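Appendix B. Raw example, untouched.
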Amino acid sequence: MLTMLLCAVLAYADIPIDINAASIVYKPQQPDAKKSPFRYIIVNNVVSEAFNTDPATGRRNVLVLLDDIAFTEENLRTLFNLVMARFPMPQALGIIVCTSLEDIKTPEEADMPIVRGAPPSPENYYKAYFFRDTKGNEWFTYNPTPPSPDSTVVVMKGKSPYPPKKDR
């Protein structure tokens, strides 16, 4: 009975096993093509339906913590594609990528009211903001050299909502 329970738990956890008589032998997994090329974790995932009653037309907001050594434009593109594949709906999507726990609020900090007009916190770490609108446009901004306020805009699909840099 214990062997069956252990097998069920290992199978649920997607751990490959071999059952030889009464013993269980762990077999390490081979490198998987689905493995991410860098380390990240989804810290928060919230669908807001504040302005809509149809969940398909709400807005999803995702907060990601990314290993700072992986903070490159190419890796950001890969990360945003991974998150979009994981969460295809609703159409409107916002992703914030942080590279330091210092940039992520604790549950107690998140519970505090937002003070309007408060000065923005300095961006001492790499950070990126991805947006997908209801028209299918996809773009992101990121700061390749914090704490400099300069940011780069990258359009992944469709049009940028920002005017060309010379007009700004």
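End of appendix B.
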